[in-house]
Structures are given as C-alpha cells and as structure tokens.
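$ run holo --ligand "FE2/S2 (inorganic) cluster" --emit tokens
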Amino acid sequence: MNSILEQYKTVPESEVKTWFKAAPVSKFPENGGACVKVNDKQIAVFNFTAEGKWYASQNVCPHKMEMVLSRGMIGEDCGTPKIACPLHKKTFSLETGENLNGEDYSIAIFPVKIEEGFVYIGTH
Ligand code: FES
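-- output --
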C-alpha cells in the first residue's frame, strides 16, 4: 500500500482514545468541508448541514494521492452520505469510507462530535 495511505486508518467510535479539539463550528462551511491538521495528518471535516450531521475522513484522495477531499462535493447516494473528490469525481461513503464507484481503494473515516460549539475528531 502507498506509504501516505498507511498513515490513515478508520477509527471506530468505540476505539477513540483522544478527542482532538479541532476548531469552532463556525469555521466549517455549511454543506461543505474544511481541512484540519491532526498530529501532522490532514483530516477533512464535513458539515453536512442538510442532514444535521458531521463527518471526517482522510483529506488525501486515494485515486491520485491529492490532498483535496475537503474541497469535494458532499451529497447522498441511496441514503448513504458521500463525498465526491473535486478532481475526478470518485465518490466515497462518509459512513464507511467505501469506494462507491466499485474500485478497490477506500478512505479512512473518523468520528466527530460537537461540544460547546467546538468540533472534535476522534483519534486512536
Ligand atoms: S484525485 Fe480524487 S478522483 Fe482523482
């Protein structure tokens, strides 16, 4: 596997050891994303206002290793929240990280919580 991708592993909520305080909610555009640095890793955080939910994933797109997913388009595919890469429109589930185009690469997903107006990202 590519060494950049090896740095990113999905963190199930039950395995969170540390909640990283990212930024105030107001720093994240509605129905859009922003990039946050967590321990030298770029994490894309998505404020899915239309659903009233938040998601986080690796910022690097596994298609061409570009740090771009935070600038992608969020939407829904048969009830699954998804992010489409802004470069070549590969899409990934924001719940599981699964590639929704049927290719064998996926993205790492991280839990998000909101407390007292701040966004926190769950890490190992
Ligand atoms: S770099 Fe993301 S789809 Fe190509």
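-- notes --
The mean pLDDT is 95.
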